[in-house]
Amino acid sequence: MSLAELQKIEVTAGRPYPVLLGAPLEELGKYVQAHLKDVEHILIITNQAIADLYAERLKKGLLDYRVNLLTVPAGETEKSLERLSQLTTAALRCGADRHSLVIALGGGVIGDLSGFFASVFMRGIRLIQVPTTLLAQVDSSIGGKVAVNHPAGKNIIGAFYPPLAVWTDFTTLESLPWEEVENGLAESVKHALIADASLFDFFETQQESIKQRDTMIWREMVTRSSTVKVKIVSQDEREQGLRALLNLGHSFGHALETVMNYHGVTHGQGVSIGLVAAANLANAKGLITTAEVERIKHLLNTFGLLTEIKDQDPQVLLQLMQADKKNQGGRKILILPQGIGQAVISRDCADSEILDAWKQVIK
Ligand SMILES: NC(=O)c1ccc[n+]([C@@H]2O[C@H](COP(=O)([O-])OP(=O)(O)OC[C@H]3O[C@@H](n4cnc5c(N)ncnc54)[C@H](O)[C@@H]3O)[C@@H](O)[C@H]2O)c1
Is 254 exposed, middle or buried (0-12, 13-18, 19+ CB in 10 A)? Predict the structure, then answer.
């Protein structure tokens, strides 16, 4: 495949950059050669499991460069200032300088950590995101948010640092365990709910092919879902308005993840229950019909995503939503679906309405 044949969607906010879809790992070197000046040294940042699967394919195209592979352990806890400091030491030992290029090879954890590293190392060095999970391909690699966590909360220390390109090789998804697929599906369904009713129809009609990992259907799913994210961040890179819609389901989901101490419910499951709770609240406000709420639940269930949870106290969950960092001036900011394919920012949800929405998902 020649570089000219790659499917490209452009993020047009700030400094524009392409999301290149169906881009083989082996070809990234050619892209770097053609588009980036003065690259001599490349740092590939990943974890060992991903390196075992994909580093050789990536390195095959980078023979003209001095390449160092830096691996970090897997897991959310690696998004830390301690790991950032260790990466800095390792990068300096490799002779990294201001002209080095970082390639973030992995899921959202690697993308966020490596992206934040690239944003601060010597006041910022070049970055290419190579997402290898469904969530990273449709969501986290696009939009320039990079961060590490702090004991006070997730993604508290971060930056907007758009990559020079997002290089999406669909074939990396073949090795992804289904639980990780679910995390990406929850975000993809969310994208459809926010902005693309026909993508929601596509999920409904293609649910079996999606479950069977049909290659062509997955390509279309990733392409259409990433297009939603590209369009939204292109209009509102810095989350001044429209981008907030991407938080649909997340205020509820985060409260649930927090109360369960990030065990027993995955991020995708949390978002899934959050989407249903938000839909229940929207239903009570007359924004979405009961039949549409049932369609949403049915689709999420089809993919193995939870739409209800046992043994939770709605009051505790409500309290946790008080601490959501998206709130403003003590007011809860919630994103609600308006039918299927549109969403609105709501600033006037009463606690009683939020409690009722929780009660409907707690069995
Ligand atoms: N920056 C953003 O805009 C943004 C948006 C959404 C989420 N996030 C962040 O993304 C992170 C979650 O990302 P994630 O869901 O990709 O999880 P992850 O990065 O932890 O990856 C999940 C697991 O899959 C493995 N893996 C990755 N690619 C694989 C492959 N191709 N085959 C087999 N295994 C593979 C990883 O080693 C890891 O164990 C969170 O930290 C979240 O905060 C960021």
Answer: buried
